[in-house]
Amino acid sequence: MDKEKYLKKLVDIGLTERESKVYTTLLSGRMFTAAELQRTVNIPRTKIYEVLNKMINRGICTEKKLGRNKIYEAVEPKLAMERVVKTYQDDLNKKKELVEQISEAFTPIFENSKSIVNPLEFIDVMKDKVQIHKRYINSVRNTKREMLTFNKGPYACDNEERLSEQEDEETKLLKRGGTTKDIYELREFEELDWLLESVKKSLRFGQKARVVDKLPIKMLIFDDEKVMFPLEQKIHDSNELTMIYIEHRQLAEACRILFNHMWEQGKDFKEIETELNNTKQLIPNSDFSIR
Fold first, then answer.
1. Residues 115-128 pLDDT 10s
2. What distance in Å separates the CA atoms of residue 120 and residue 31, rounded to the nearest whole number?
């Protein structure tokens, strides 16, 4: 028999290495005293009785008295292994009972905690532009009816790829029957050379756009349920952007009132498109995103 192979198998089913060595030694058929086992298996003298007591409790070896000495024998392998498995099954059953007791005790506590409102569940503060861009894309993707925006800098993206991704997602919203209404600041067209063409492209797919002299804040509203707007930067004129995302119907409705007020004050983009096309104040800018 490949002893090392089966020592490992005994360890795999849950015996310790010392228990495995003692058991395979006892299988030789002769009776051993503790001292003989200690020398044969090379276990420290202080540990041999501890190992033997555990094996007796497991039911895989027996202890008998022969005169003044105690002798040890292996239990028949099939019976010994069945006893090892039964020990694990009994232990598992006890743990199942404990799990049921704990579940029964803790479930009411968990259910009661659902009534506690955690503000972090519907508020998210983002400082990374990539994170802001992804949140915007997901928000448009999940919009079913309408998106309203105040468009002004600073912007979440700084490359054409992200701008294209934003435009494509808005186009998909329009194609599936949603509406988008955007209000732009006039000076944005004067300072950003990419913005005019981007708006024209969106208008061809159904975006509604108006222009005002000044917007009070950058803001996005999705289905009157979710809102995104920036937090004020400590450094004036910083190009950094911190956005807050809030899922709150009443706040979204209040933001819509502000949007409607500014919409009524705005000029239809098509009315001033010629004026914008003829402006001489366009300044090249490396920012691309309209969000």
1. 666 666 678 888 88
2. 69
